# Entry
Amino acid sequence: MTNPIRLVIFGRQGAGKGTQCLRLVEAFGVIHISTGDMLRGAVAAGTELGLQAKAIMDAGDLVSDDIINGIVRERLAMDDVQEHGFVLDGYPRTAAQAEALVMVLGDHGLHAAVDLDVPLDEVTARMKARGRDDDTDEGIARRLALYEQETRPVLTWFAERDLLVTVDGLGEEAEVTERLLSTVRSAASV
Ligand code: ADP
# Structure
């Protein structure tokens, strides 16, 4: 492909972002770049980065913009990403990260920032229903509040640059996928 698809995806915990990222990979052949997965990989491998990141992640804080920007910049420069495009998941999480991303990609480097939108009460109900160990009422509320605080300004940042597209994440998984794929096709003109 001469102009591979380049996306950022946002969504509350429980919005189904993981599944829908897989669908984007299947449909468009893009590389899924999850900063959370990369950091957990570094922790598991016991690298210098992993050692630094572990305490920060355990405390539920954000890894510094400099560190995470460096990791993402290196990943974006790799051949597979250059060739197949990407969906960035978990990044950018701050306005400074969004600025850094646009610096790396250039002004027309992103086709869209997708917000997979599922209302707060629905994601809360979904997380309670799946009943994972960390899905206590308090834990759920805290993570969702943090998402709101962190991510809302970044969504606004993309909206101001006319890059934000919202996909309704309510309904059957396959319906959501259809909506997502058609939104991406029109944003990327493919
Ligand atoms: P969650 O959505 O539960 O926060 P992630 O897998 O996206 O899960 O991230 C796990 C942890 O990794 C975060 O809590 C944070 O410490 C770190 N992290 C991931 N992405 C970033 C980022 N873009 N900037 C700073 N820290 C990040």
Remarks:
- The beta strands are 6-11, 31-34, 86-89, 112-117, 164-168.
- Residues 13, 35-36, 39, 56-57, 60-63, 68, 90-91, 93, 97 surround adenosine-5'-diphosphate (CB under 6 Å).
- The mean pLDDT is 94.
- The chain has nine helices and five strands.
